[in-house]
Amino acid sequence: MATLYNDDPETREAWLMYAIEFARRGLEVGDGEIEVHGPHPGPGSDCIWGKADLWSRRGWIQGEFSTPSGCTGRWDIRGLRVRDRHGGTYRILKVAELSTELREFIASARKERDRLRREALGGRR
């Protein structure tokens, strides 16, 4: 299990990765904390799951997320599914459906995430 924090330099890149995926669904990370589990070796454990307090247009939700089985590592969040504890699901929205604030957040977060990745690779890429 890992807890990702918005203000922790060691987890910032991963936090941004999830925050971008939530924002694409019209959700914002509430307290800046995202709890992530997996993937683990062995059958039935090759997925990622976790939770975060998220803000939607309808108010605060206790968000849960997971990836389909078969993910290749902790950075593989393809197919991420987001739902609330009542079973409501959150699909990826069209850009036009996102608020201006979320569109701006996604753009700046992607730039920062890419910069952090380049720095982690020693400027390569």
Topology:
Blueprint: E1 2-5, H1 12-23, E2 28-37, E3 49-56, E4 59-66, E5 81-84, E6 89-90, H2 100-120
Antiparallel strand pairs: 1-2, 2-3, 3-4, 4-5, 5-6
Helix pairs in contact: 1-2
Descriptive account of the structure:
The chain has 2 helices and 6 strands, in the order E-H-E-E-E-E-E-H. With 125 residues, the protein is an alpha+beta fold. It has one domain. The longest helix has 21 residues, at 100-120. The chain is globular. The termini are far apart. The mean pLDDT is 90.
Rg is 14 Å
Q: Average the pLDDT over all residues and give the rounded result.
A: 90
Low-confidence stretches: none
How far apart the termini lie comes to 29 Å
Helicity level, as a percent range?
25-40%
Instruction: Decide which structural class fits the backbone.
Output: alpha+beta
Strand order of the largest sheet: 1-2-3-4-5-6
Please tally the β strands and state the result: 6
Characterize the overall form: globular
Number of domains: 1
The major sheet is characterized as: 6 strands, antiparallel
- Beta-strand content bin: 25-35%
What's the helix count? 2
Question: What is shown here, in short?
Answer:
By secondary structure, the chain is α+β, with helices and mostly antiparallel strands. The chain contains two helices and six strands; from the N terminus they run βαβββββα. It has one domain (2-118).
